User: What shape does this take?
Amino acid sequence: MSEPVYNKAGIGYNAVRKADPYLASRMYTHIVPKPGGIYLDVGCGTGNYLTALTEMGLQFYGIDPSETMLEVARSKNHGATLINAKVEHIPLPDAFFDGAMGNFTMHHWDDKIKGLTEIARVLKPKARAVFLSFTPEQMHGYWLFHYFPDMMERSTALLPGIDAVEQWLYEAGFNLVETEKYFVQDDLQDQFLYANKHKPENYLIPEVRNGASSFTVFADPKEVAAGLIQLSHDIETGEINDIIARYENDEGDYLFYVAERE
Assistant: This one.
């Protein structure tokens, strides 16, 4: 994903994207923090989760290719070191960090193996990297497909499956320790793509759609307009409840990958 695309996605992003306490707590747990450790947030964006974990007592560096997003991150986090860089070229020394995290970022990287190899390079041996992402199987279970099929297909095409991610991690010098499914909860505070799984009326709000790259980068305006008309109608008639029920599954809506540096 090019820098201009990241910058486009960053406009208005922080208005609806907040660190969710539960997700932040899972990242903290999976990263297995140690006293005095230094951690890396890959694709830190506007710094929401970086700030949340900093407030839990961790010291962070953050990298992101979008200066638009980093300007916001710098305005609210003065304790972290924030660097304009892509994951494929991290301008930091070998074995510098005690852990890393990356939230909804891997599918945007130009070169997945090179990015993971760079993360492995800057991590100390046995350090953990935690990635919050989603799989094609999970995304095909989103009822948003009913209203915006082309947009969702374009978004899904970017996503690697679990087997591919495990192979990339292995080639980069990681072992996949575990995966953990996340099902969207009603009290979710971070308005990413499927955050309003149980609140379909929220997708009628432009600010909510602007917080998700599927709508800001991969959508056709005509399809979105038509889909919103149908969604609004289905909410009014109650048909939306049948459609949501049709997409219920046990795949999970998102997935944590927990990997350990060899």
Remarks:
- The first helix runs from residue 3 to 10.
- The mean pLDDT is 93.
- The beta strands are 38-42, 59-64, 81-84, 97-103, 123-133, 174-182, 254-261.
